[in-house]
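Hi! If you just cloned this repository, the fastest way to understand the data is to look at a raw example. We've pasted two of them here, unedited. The first protein comes first, obviously.
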Amino acid sequence: MTSPGLIIVGSGPAGVSAAETFRRHHRDGTVRILTDDPALPYARPPLSKEFLRGDAEAADAELHPGQWFDERSIELVHIGAVDAIDVADQHVTAAGQRYPYQWLVLACGAKPSPFPVPGGEKALQLRSLADA
């Protein structure tokens, strides 16, 4: 079991901003971002533009380099999907691991729904670096 602190579910701009703001006001304590994305946190808009055109690398879309997270003691935990959140006992379970928290932020983002039109299931849903 790990020490309680701030747990953020989601590594998009909202999750990273929450971690950054929390760390600015709380210099001590654990800050963990739980994510199902294997990449460093990145901005999604460039994926449908510069990245697909070949004008940018994956690193160009990163919100911050890995060193930025290390310098601020913000831990990125690439664990896949969160299995459960126990609000009463204040812990998140993911991949069989319990992550206790004192504070919890859900910054999960959204998932697109396929268009309910003929052929809609064939539409590309661009939501990650892997999709691009």
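Ok, and the second one:
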Amino acid sequence: ITLKNLDAKGNQATWSAEGDVSSSDDLYTWVGQLADYELLEQTWTKDKPVKFSAMLTSKGTPASGWSVNFYSFQAAASDRGRVVDDIKTNNKYLIVNSEDFNYRFSQLESALNNQKNSIPALEKEVKALDKQMVAAQKAADAYWGKDANGKQMTREDAFKKIHQQRDEFNKQNDSEAFAVKYDKEVYQPAIAACHKQSEECYEV
């Protein structure tokens, strides 16, 4: 740092300062967003000297000690920036002032154009698939048949009918119901007919 005395009065003095300053890290500022990518500008390069100028005032003497106030700081690099921890490992960052920016940007632009150009073809495929799905749905609906009135049945209607038929079958083929029906329609009439012809009839 080079100091130049501009004014002195008593134990107070005004100075201009010029020199080099550097950052212990690479620093970046956010520029914008492009699709899934973040655009950053590298404002400081680690350990790279940057020229600066500033003003400062001093108060004190060699015997009493000094207090110094810096102001009007100006550097050749931006006074903004932050550390981006995953800048080396995350591919989502595009550094606008890096050497490979134009190459990476052209690759990204090409990929976006290819994606854009593929949209009409994808829409055509989706429409064709929609037609196939409609046809498949109609075929599935037709599979379940029609009711007594000729109305197309759904899967739920068909299963309901099947369950009703099953319940009716079980009801008609129930052993207890069969025994009651047999007793009423076969056995009792046979016993009654027997008693008309003879007093002795074998009953169980």
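That's it. A detail worth noticing about the second one: The beta strands are 2-9, 12-21, 27-34, 37-44, 50-61, 65-75, 93-95.
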